[in-house]
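Predict the 3D structure for this chain.
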Amino acid sequence: MKTYGELIRELRIKKGIAQKNLYENIMSKSYAIRFEQGKHEISFYLIHSILNRLGMEVDEFLYIYNGYTEPKIEQFYSEYSLKGNANDIEGLKAMRNLYTRSPMTYQNQLWIAELNARIDQLTYFNQYGEFSKQAITAESLQTIHHYLDQIQTWTLNELRFFANTLDFIEYERKSEYFKSILPALDRYQNFQRGHPVICTLLINEIHEFIMANELAMADLFLVKLDAFSNTIETMFYRNAHLYYKGMLLIASGEPDLGRPLVKEAIQLYESLGYHHQAQLADTFFKNLLQR
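Done. Predicted structure below.
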């Protein structure tokens, strides 16, 4: 594998940037030569300064450095989300088998617990037509709770883990987690790459609030979802905002206003090919109407 310096040299040459122009006031000519030869390492601060002159984000640089592949954590959640949203239980089991055969690091244990919980949940849903926390094994829940209980600072990785395990956790315990999470959300308002993670978290919590008849809290989080889903990149989450806006109206005693919004959102899911998402949304809608 190339060193950072060797990759920067390759990118610099392809961009037609002279070595002097790239490294001036950052490092000496002799040090720059040895850095580009892979014989010196430098601090992250200096790498960041160099990438600014190259006109490149750190995320893209690392993506290229890793052979145009996402980091392992991004690969996991991309595949997990794709298979989970498609109700692909066999695909989730294949993922679990892969991580079970890998070295049993703490991160792999967490991912296996997530996969087991989602497999249990979807299996129960396919059989009975509803989600149930009781379908998830105590072992998986214990691993998930232990990790969440240890968190002191909520970064995107922790927020994403919580978003994906939110519906496995009892309401009272979840409320405690949210007290420490809320301040972290606003700090990511201007970090566009984190918006899908936060939107997922907000959607899952809005759903829980509506089903628990905590309508004031659902409305509060719907406002936050509105703020985090206002770009083209978050269009999927914008449709979820439409859906839960309608669901909240129904739960608030205004079904004639809410029904058209919910049905429009479900139809959009179908039109865009999110058939399992449409099925879930329709199931929750009917459950709310019955209640």
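The CA atoms of residues 3 and 78 lie 27 Å apart.
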